[in-house]
Specification:
It contains 20 helices and 9 strands. It has 515 residues and is mainly alpha-helical. The protein has 2 domains: 196 residues, Fumarase/aspartase (N-terminal domain) (Fumarase C, Chain B, domain 1, Orthogonal Bundle), CATH 1.10.275.10; 303 residues, Fumarase C, Chain A, domain 2. The strands form 4 sheets. A 3-stranded antiparallel β-sheet has the order 4-6-7. β6 and β7 form a beta hairpin.
Length: 515
């Protein structure tokens, strides 16, 4: 990730994914740029003109949703904005993660900073002040249908901005919104026309979760290549199917990247070389031979999702939009379909990758298919069960991820007296993807644990320099084969090694970074 020297400037041109992750998961602070401030002032002046001229404008001098035909007197338009927040802060369920709440604040400020919402700079500055003070509004799991954006989640954030609602301070203590602002020296925001609506009419939660998912998956697909290479060695597989000239016959970009990684990871392997000649097997099973095709398809899915995320990070999301020529136009940019689709697409790739990991794991545990490894990699099998139940745990998560691969974005529901009669369910797609990614991390950890034990059992044959480095890193934390012992802490340790980036780092030290 690119370093930002602890500061990200929020301009009128949007943000990059690296900047988003640096703020959501790191200590990077954010400030509003001068160009963003100027852009916001221009359209805020347009809104002032409509209010003074008593012109009916949706969300400015009218009600919302199916109440858009109700004209609001000028003296009550500010009251309208506060009432909107209170009524829309109707979420239920468990609190969502701090990093996602930070994403709601950052990305809503990002959209406002584009200068098409007609709100004052102080609105974006107040969001950034809360973010920099590490105030985390309490936002609940349920409340967003993904159009008009993430309404309830963003309303819970906005409630704290005006000194209401609930939040956690930098130490995690649950306090009122007013106490949170006072503790940070931030004055409660007094809303004027359009500002309440602009604070909630965005796809910021689902976009934040997409950016975080892409960051996680870029690492997990590299670790998956590492685990696959170790499984190929553990199962006495061949690397010939991964040759560049074979891959070039099917010019899929992700496939070529994964195959090249596998070739580099397996280069110099005594285990692979030991059966290169005289092996009666004509070809490996699909779960080994087709690894680049499956891993690569997932990589291509990630690349497409990155394109959508990058477009969204420079988009203006609100309704109505205030245009440079003074027009105020209603539009549908708050609809989360572009984000919801790719969130569901990623969940499919995650589920299939986990399924392939499980097939390789199962093969290493079955003496009928493991080419000389003991049943379940256990000494004295029968007395010892080895990795049998670790595989059960892995299989349970694979099955759950298949359920999470069912798309949410086709499950629209009609609301707001049929005014909002098609919604994206993008928030739901994002929530299930987060669960699926956590499961995938654990699924890969189980494969690594099993493959490491298989490599130990192939001694005195030596793995490649790359996989040997990974094996050494694992063995610094998890002991090798032996009699049955408590496995859960070992699997948790492998999960943490995957999460921390330790395994890709040791590979990079051995053979250079993987693509």
């Amino acid at each position: 990730m690119k370093a930002y020297n602890g500061l990200v400037e929020l301009s009128s041109r949007g943000l990059s994914r690296d900047q988003v992750v640096a703020v959501l998961r790191g200590s990077a602070r954010v400030e509003l740029g001068d160009d963003a401030r100027e852009a916001m002032l221009r359209t805020a002046a347009v809104v002032d003109g409509f209010v003074h001229a008593d012109v009916p404008v949706y969300g400015v001098t009218t009600g919302f949703g199916s109440l858009a035909s109700v004209v609001i007197p000028a003296e009550r338009t500010a009251e309208l904005q506060l009432a909107l927040l209170r009524s829309h802060a109707a979420g239920m369920g468990t609190d969502i993660e701090t990093e996602v709440v930070r994403g709601l604040m950052l990305l809503r400020a990002r959209s406002l900073a584009r200068g098409y919402s007609g709100v004052r700079p102080i609105v974006a500055e107040a969001l950034l002040a809360m973010l920099n003070a590490e105030i985390t509004p309490v936002v609940h799991e349920y409340g967003s249908l993904g159009a008009s954006g993430d309404l309830a989640p963003l309303a819970h954030v906005a409630m704290v901005l005006v000194g209401e609602g609930a939040a956690r301070d930098a130490f995690g203590q649950l306090i009122t919104g007013g106490q949170a602002l006072a503790g940070a020296g931030i004055a409660p925001l007094v809303l004027r026309e359009k500002e309440g609506l602009a604070l909630i009419n965005g796809t910021d939660g689902m976009l934040a979760m997409l950016c975080l998912a892409l960051s996680d998956l870029s690492e997990l697909f590299r670790v998956a290549d590492i685990a696959a290479a170790m499984s190929v060695e553990g199962l006495l597989g061949t690397d010939r199917a991964f040759a560049a000239d074979l891959q070039a016959l099917r010019p899929q970009v992700g496939q070529a990247v994964s195959a090249a990684n596998l070739c580099r990871l397996l280069a110099g392997s005594d285990i692979v070389a030991s059966h290169r000649h005289g092996d009666s097997r004509v070809q490996d099973a699909y779960s080994l031979r087709c690894t680049p095709q499956v891993h690569g398809a997932g990589r291509d899915t990630i690349a497409y999702a990155e394109t959508i995320a990058d477009r969204e990070l420079v988009a203006a999301i609100d309704n109505p939009m205030i245009l440079p020529d003074g027009r105020v136009e209603s539009c549908g940019n708050f609809h989360g379909a572009p984000i919801g689709y790719v969130l569901d697409f990623l969940a499919i790739a995650v589920a299939d990758l986990g399924s392939l990991c499980e097939r390789r794991t199962d093969r290493m545990l079955d003496p009928a298919r493991s080419f000389g490894l003991p049943p379940f990699l256990a000494p004295d099998a029968g007395v010892n069960s080895g990795m049998m139940i670790a595989h059960y745990t892995q299989a349970a998560m694979v099955a759950e991820n298949r359920r999470h691969a069912v798309p949410a974005s086709v499950d629209t529901m009609a609301t707001s007296a049929m005014q909002e009669d098609h919604v994206s369910m993008g928030w739901s797609a994002a929530r299930k993807l987060r669960v699926a990614i956590d499961n995938l991390r654990r699924i890969i950890a189980v494969e690594l644990c099993v493959a490491a034990r298989a490599l130990d059992l192939r001694h005195p044959l030596q793995p490649s320099p790359a996989t040997a480095a990974v094996l050494h890193a694992i063995r610094e934390h998890v002991p090798g084969p032996g009699a049955d012992r408590w496995l859960s802490p070992e699997l948790a340790c492998l999960e943490q090694l995957v999460r921390s980036g330790t395994l890709t780092a040791v590979v990079a030290d051995a053979i250079g970074p993987l693509d």
